[in-house]
Amino acid sequence: MKYVIVLGDGMADRPLEELQGMTPLEYAKTPNMDKLAAAGEIGMVHTIPDGMSPGSDTANLSVLGYDPNIYYSGRSPLEALSIGVDMKPTDVSLRCNLVTLSEEEEKYEDRKILDHSSGEISTSDAAVLLEAVRKELETDIYKFYVGTSYRHLLIWDQGKVMELTPPHDVLGQAVGQYLPEDEILRGMMKKSYDVLANHPINIERKKQGLNPANSCWFWGAGTRPALSSFQEKTGLSGAMISAVDLLKGIAVGASMRNILVEGANGGLHTNYEGKAQAAVDVLTKENYDFVYIHVEAPDEMGHQGSVEKKVQAIEYLDERVIAPVKSGLEQAGEPFRMLVMPDHPTPISIRTHTADDVPYLLYDSTKIESNAWKYNEKEAAQSGNRIAKGCEMIDYLIGK
Questions:
Q1: Residue ranges of the alpha helices (H) in the chain?
Q2: Which domain-ending residue is among 185, 206, 222?
Q3: Which end of the chain has fewer beta carbons closer than 10 Å to its terminal beta carbon, N or C?
Q4: For residues 349 and 14, is the Cβ–Cβ distance under 8 A?
């Protein structure tokens, strides 16, 4: 038996007037997911432990079977693992987003966060900008590391873990009240604006109508994580397919294989087909037991507040990932169980994450059911099936 999780990041949502009272998942044309739902099981699952922040870090740890109450030590350290930063026990890792701030205000504190991703800036452009920041701000105590797109790292020697605000939680708001209390971190964020605002790359981006990456934003602080091996936990050899450093870092920590797919970029126009083919290949040709296919696009479109693009991201996931993975495993003659779900909701109406339950779809190719369900939040809730602890979902998938 092969096992697959297809994770549509932030795919769940709330009913929207623009969609006649439907959610993007309910409105989207998803014939493949609906076909699996009619032949399988749907329900709701609570992925975020009570009292914890509804981040992709806690949620994806939970879906992979790692109780965040036990294993979570911060988001950024997981990303540090993925890019090969060897953290000392005394290091603190912070996420360093390149964000877009408004530019008409005189004081930094009065500027507003317009875009947490700087228009999903390319890694190549971001690396040049981060190098400019590094030259001005890096010291023996504070070291910058390039990640992917807008997502980068600051490692703080002998640092301290503190509450810091994710930029996607305060879109459109003045930054003053959300800046770090630590004077050095706050000062570095302000100085980064002075370095970046008139950088040639940002001048060119504005000419092209793109959002400038004009400030660093620190958040997600934590210490070196200690995850147990996924294979020891589950008995399954596992592989991760994601464009996002966070997920790749979780895989490193869990001793799973990371599969890098050319053209996979975490955006709406990622290489969906490449991810699907890589998943089929690792399960059938390389005989792995389990693969986790992570697609970031629904979450990014939720943060952008784009109804049309979030619907499109969900339809792409259905047509260009789920359909070819199912077909590829069937053609190979492999029995399989597939779990489709979000990690958390990213409602269009608020453009950030919530801790609400999310809908799951579980399909077993050897036990075809017959019902009238379609896969969406409303019908999953109506099913009466609910899993109260997301970290138990992996055992449910593999039939433990």
A1: 24-27, 31-38, 56-63, 68-71, 75-82, 123-137, 183-196, 200-207, 230-234, 245-253, 272-284, 297-304, 307-317, 323-331, 377-382, 393-398
A2: 222
A3: C
A4: yes
Question: Would you say residue 328 lies in a domain?
Answer: yes
The DSSP call for residue 74 is -
Domain with 183 in it: 92-222
For 239-251, the DSSP string reads: EEE-SSHHHHHHH
Q: What's the number of CA atoms in the CB half-sphere (13 Å) around residue 265?
A: 15
Mean pLDDT by 10 residues, the chain (400 residues): 98 98 98 98 97 94 97 88 88 96 97 96 96 97 95 95 93 96 97 98 97 97 91 97 94 96 94 98 98 97 96 98 98 98 97 97 95 96 98 95
H helical segments located in 72-122: 75-82
Q: What is the 3-state secondary structure (H, E, C) of 278-329?
A: HHHHHHHCCCCCEEEEEECHHHHHHHHCCHHHHHHHHHHHHHHHHHHHHHHH
End-to-end Cα distance, the chain: 13
- Predicted TM-score (pTM) of the model is 0.84
Q: Are 263 and 88 in contact (CB under 8 A)?
A: no
Strands 336-341 and 2-8: parallel
Q: Are residues 48 and 110 in the same domain?
A: no
Non-local (6+) Cβ contacts of 308 within 8 A are none
Residues 254 and 305 placed together within one structural domain of the fold = yes
Q: Residue 112: which of 168, 164, 173, 167 has the closest Cα?
A: 173
The residue from 171, 203, 222 where one domain ends is 222
